[in-house]
Amino acid sequence: MIVLRVYRGVADHFQIRLSEWMMLWPSFGLWLAFQVDPEMFSKSPSYAYLEAWATQNTWAAIVALAGLCRLMALTINGTFKGFAFSPHIRGFASLVGVVVWSQISLGFLVAYVSAGGAPSGVIAWSTMVILEFANTYRSFSDIGKNAAERG
Predict the structure, then answer these.
(1) Rounded CA gap, 53 and 15, in Å?
(2) pLDDT band for position 10 (50/70/90)?
(3) What pLDDT shows up at residue 135?
(4) Stated pTM of the model
(5) In which band, very low, low, confident or very high, does the pLDDT at 146 lie, cut at 50, 70 and 90?
(6) How far apart are the first and last CA of the chain?
(7) Cα 19 to Cα 15: distance, rounded to the nearest angstrom
C-alpha cells in the first residue's frame, strides 16, 4: 500500500516538477562519471580548482548527497496529503543544488581564467545553477500558495 501511495504522489506531480526531476541526472550522472573514471581530475585542467578544494571522491560524495536530497524531497512531495512542509523540503533541496552547482561552476570558471581549463564547463554547470534558482523560486512560491489556501 505504501508503494502505491508513493507512486501516486510521484506520478501526480511528475510533470509539474519535471525540472526538479531532471536535476537528478547531473547529480547521479556526475557521481557515476567520478566512479567510472577515478582519474578524471588529473586528465583536465578544468578540474584544477575543484581538486584544490576537495578530492574527486569528496566531490562524488557531495553530488551524490545533493541527488539523494533531491530524490527524497520529490518522493515526499505529494505522497503525504496535508503535509505542509513539502515545498519547504523541495526548496531546501533546490538550495543545496544551487550551492553545489555554483561551486562547480566557480571551479570551472577559475580554472578557465587561470589554469587553461575549457570555458564550456562554465556554461554547462552554470546552467544547472540557473535551473536550481528557478526550482527554488517555484518551491518557495508554493509555500505562499499553500498558506493562502489554508486561510
Answers:
(1) 37
(2) confident
(3) 96
(4) 0.88
(5) low
(6) 32
(7) 9
Tell me the residue type at 109: L
Residue 111's pLDDT is: 96
Q: Are 29 and 125 in contact (CB under 8 A)?
A: no
Report the amino acid identity of residue 89: I
In the block, cell 505542509 appears at 84
Looking at per-residue confidence, does 81 or 109 come out higher?
109
Q: What are the domain boundaries of the chain?
A: 2-150
Q: Kindly report the three-state secondary structure assignment for every residue of the chain.
A: CHHHHHHHHHHHHCCCCHHHHHCHHHHHHHHHHHHHCCCHHHHCHHHHHHHHHCCHHHHHHHHHHHHHHHHHHHHHCCCCCCCCCHHHHHHHHHHHHHHHHHHHHHHHHHHHHHHCCCCHHHHHHHHHHHHHHHHHHHHHHHHHHHHHHHC
- Would you say how long the chain is, in residues? 151
* Amino acid (1-letter code) at residue 128: M
pLDDT band of residue 86 (cuts 50, 70, 90) is: confident
